[in-house]
Request: fold
Amino acid sequence: MLIQLGKIVVTGVAFLIALGCISTDALAGTIVGSKHDLAYLEDLHGIGNSYNDEVCIYCHTPHNADQSQGPLWNRPAPTVSYTLYASETLIELPGQPGPASLLCLSCHDGTIAVDTIIEMPNVNVIIDKNHPKMRYDPTNPGIMDCGTCHYPGAPGGNHVRSYFGTNLSNQHPVGIVYNTSTPRLRQPPAETVKLVNGKVECTSCHNVHDPEIEPFLITDNAGSALCFACHAK
Reply:
């Protein structure tokens, strides 16, 4: 359920919080009401779909999922080749992003529409991943692009942080082997940095389901604590 109050659109859960029916502690650290909760898109006129009121459907499905990419995954994987980070100080050369990072990039590289999913609720339809809805196109700053970042008539968001494109040369390297044999890297605590098969991926530093530490960081980076968990400086 979505309720519109002026320019503010809230989910039914958020509305119950406002009424005091549900404590914020009960939903602390969850995707509900966060920037990854795309249920609000149902209210964007000309952009919303009939399934936009479902929080989890943009990434997960209980049936006919793509298990090769992630748990009960409901999005097509990007098929593009990425320009990678390069530096003469790198100990290991990054490879193409691994499955854990491709899950994130399936939305954040802008090549696949955000509302492109494999399994729609209650029907067996695969949506064309090239569908223009909710897909970033820097040459077309029209309603389809505006709607990915802000409500109609409300202040805009910064889409630069939402869409990296396929050039990852100015992003922290992912798909890179974490070599602990060098004194320049520490063995990170497992509860702080999550290596994926011995590699750094997007999910090493970000927890997509927990918005408490922006931007979805896995742990607080005050004093560069997250950075120093890996880098010996």
Helices lie at 12-18, 24-27, 99-108, 143-146, 202-205, 225-228. Residues 1-27, 147-157 have pLDDT under 50 and may be disordered. The CA atoms of residues 95 and 175 lie 5 Å apart.
